[in-house]
């Protein structure tokens, strides 16, 4: 069931499959997918299957699921350097009001992507 999701949130709708996404890893408590407007190639997002705007509102069991997923994505992507980022509130650059962790690769210059 998806009892912790809302009807009108874009990320809740991605979890429900109503909006297409490039899925990476799905568990019972989290969903991860590629960012539609990547800051660098490989930019991924991990979201709890729990609608909350702020980090501190997410129940522990959902956070405890999401972080190891972020770790798996970083490890599986063979990333050298990267940011794990999570914004809370408009003043902190949060655009989508459903908690999400960014995994943002920092390609080195030798790869020609920096
Ligand atoms: P924020 O600024 O809220 O921390 O980050 C929101 C992120 O969600 C942005 O990087 C943006 O590109 C991404 N995003 C917004 N809408 C969609 C969407 O419909 N699909 C996907 N895959 N990413 C989205
Ligand atoms: Zn939501």
UniProtKB/TrEMBL annotation:
This is HIT-like domain-containing protein. One of its GO terms (biological process) is nucleotide metabolic process. The chain holds residues 3 to 116 of 140 of the full protein. A motif (Histidine triad motif) lies at residues 98-102. GO terms for molecular function: catalytic activity. Residues 10-113 form the HIT domain. The active site is at residue 100.
């Amino acid at each position: 069931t998806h009892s912790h999701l809302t009807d009108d949130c874009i990320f809740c709708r991605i979890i429900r499959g109503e909006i297409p996404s490039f899925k990476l890893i799905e568990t019972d408590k989290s969903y991860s997918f590629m960012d539609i407007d990547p800051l660098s190639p490989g930019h991924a997002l991990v979201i709890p299957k729990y609608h909350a705007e702020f980090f501190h509102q997410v129940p522990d069991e959902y956070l405890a699921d999401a972080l190891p997923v972020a770790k798996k994505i970083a490890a599986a992507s063979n990333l050298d350097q990267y940011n794990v980022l999570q914004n809370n509130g408009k003043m902190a650059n949060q655009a989508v009001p459903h908690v999400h962790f960014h995994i943002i690769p920092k390609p080195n210059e030798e790869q020609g992507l920096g």
